[in-house]
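User: Okay, second chain of the day. Same drill as before: sequence in, structure tokens out.
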Amino acid sequence: MAFNVLWLQSGGCGGCSMSLLCANTPDLPNLLNTSGIQLLWHPAMSLDCNQELLDLLEACLSGRVQLDALCIEGAILRGPNGSGRFHVLSGTGKPMLEWVQRLSAVADHVVAVGSCAAWGGITASGSNPSDACGLQFEDEHKGGLLGANFLSKSGLPVINIAGCPTHPGWVLDTFMMLAAGLFGPENLDALGRPRFYADQLVHHGCPRNEYYEYKASAAKPTDLGCLMENMGCTGTQAHADCNIRLWNGDGSCIRGGFACINCTAPGFQSPGHPFHVTPKLAGIPIGLPTDMPKAWFVALASLSKSATPKRVKINSHSDHVVHPPVSRNTRLR
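Assistant: Same drill. Structure tokens below.
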């Protein structure tokens, strides 16, 4: 039997759908089909129109169509005044939040695709006039639309494929694991994110790691140096495998010259400072590696800077490699 997936969009930009459409495969529908996954409906990949979608939703609610995974992209808009009427599903007169609640009750699995659906994300930033929230979180606090104690029919909480946007590989791997019956509570971290990507750090595989090791830091956006000390990079704290599982087989934010802003974590959208600035206390970055005591970092940084090779120092403040490594016969066999 096929694993039936229903994908609905709520309050957001549609970026996670755009990311999925850029999956590293020449034929996404065929990849899904050969993996036993049937996409019942998707706003960008389905031809069915309004009435056909509404008939499908009713069929899912009645049990005539098995709903294996309900995927929600975008934050849930609870405003104004808890009515949810900032987002009404076309042709129904009912707010999207009501449809999500009803469908979540009959789905075997409920999946939040992207940080907006997971925690509220960009949609909930600032004063949050639309009262946006995630499915089971509101930033780092459990609750959201479905409540802290919600479990789907499978016994799992909401699966938070967080990211802004999500990597298409995270979505497809989650679908495939669910379809194969290989996804259980042990596969989720404390925030409900799939551990196959959340147990990594963006720092892992970072192309600037040599500069990080010597604390040779960039001073401006075009520099090759480490972006942590001055340019706001949080890759040593961000849970994702972006520099191991490259986007479109080739890129990542850091490879594109941009600092990691920890978009898989709740609250990333409101850091309290400009994204391109590293907040410091007494000259020391506040956001240190997650499992390193501050005293150790200070000692390591001091030692590293004193041992920085000249070529690393020069290259870190350039937009290209000025001095490549010297080739020497080390006599190692």
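The first strand starts at residue 3 and ends at 9.

User: Thanks, on to the next one.
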